[in-house]
Design brief:
The protein has 222 residues and is an alpha/beta fold. 26% of the residues lie in helices and 25% in strands.
Length: 222
């Protein structure tokens, strides 16, 4: 799962809430530039990046921490934010069985989040064609959430989308969108369900976890 949005849109707050809903049996490893997440679970390992000293030595990057996290028997890997070359390592981690891993990324929309992740992977220096990167992203990410801070100041999830695996189609399948009732309203608005006649295969993963989301895909308001 990837949560996108701008600065102050509530990405880290949502990430922390989702982490706290994880099973108490899960071994969770958090990786951040600066420790902000508070995960109230018994099996949590918190890793924090470190800047180089005055001599330019001792730097520990997010990418270094992510590679070491793979050796710590994680059930879930939580990255506070993906900003650069570590996007490639995140992609590898998500495609090697760490189901339930999550991260955040700065983006203007869900579609922009997919493109920005692809660009960060391509900037990692790994010799991968763009088509391969897009295919890896489709395999790694199941759910995309976009958050915004509306003019009145409230923070809202404005779009929830499933990721489609068909490389010939759109990269996402929108499930919910937020429709505000007015810019002056603090909380006024509603969630709209989008009718999806052919749900993507990722819905099968949710069903394995006890959530049959097909019943949500009928369209209308919540």
């Amino acid at each position: 799962m990837v949560i996108s949005g701008g600065t102050g849109s509530g990405k880290t707050t949502t990430l922390g809430a989702l982490c706290s809903a994880a099973s108490e049996r899960d071994r969770i490893i958090t990786i951040e530039d600066a420790a902000e997440l508070r995960v109230l679970r018994p099996h949590v390992v918190c890793l924090e990046a470190r800047a180089p000293n005055i001599e330019g030595k001792g730097e520990v990057t997010i990418r270094d921490l992510l590679r070491n996290a793979l050796r710590m028997r994680p059930d879930r890997i939580i990255i506070g934010e993906v900003r650069g070359r570590e996007a490639y390592d995140l992609l590898q981690a998500l495609n090697t069985g760490h189901r339930g891993s999550m991260s955040t990324v700065h983006a203007n929309s869900v579609s922009d989040a997919v493109r920005r992740l692809a660009n960060m992977v391509l900037s990692s220096g790994e010799p991968l064609p763009h088509e391969v990167v897009e295919d890896e992203l489709r395999s790694a990410i199941d759910l995309l959430i976009h958050q915004e801070r509306i003019p009145a100041g409230a923070r809202k999830m404005t779009e929830v989308s499933l990721v489609t695996k068909d490389a010939g189609g759109a990269p996402k399948c929108t499930v919910f969108t937020w429709e505000p009732e007015g810019a002056s309203s603090e909380t006024g608005g509603r969630f709209l369900r989008h009718t999806i006649s052919d749900p993507p295969e990722v819905t099968g993963k949710f069903k394995m976890c006890g959530m049959d989301i097909r019943r949500w895909l009928g369209g209308g308001c919540l």
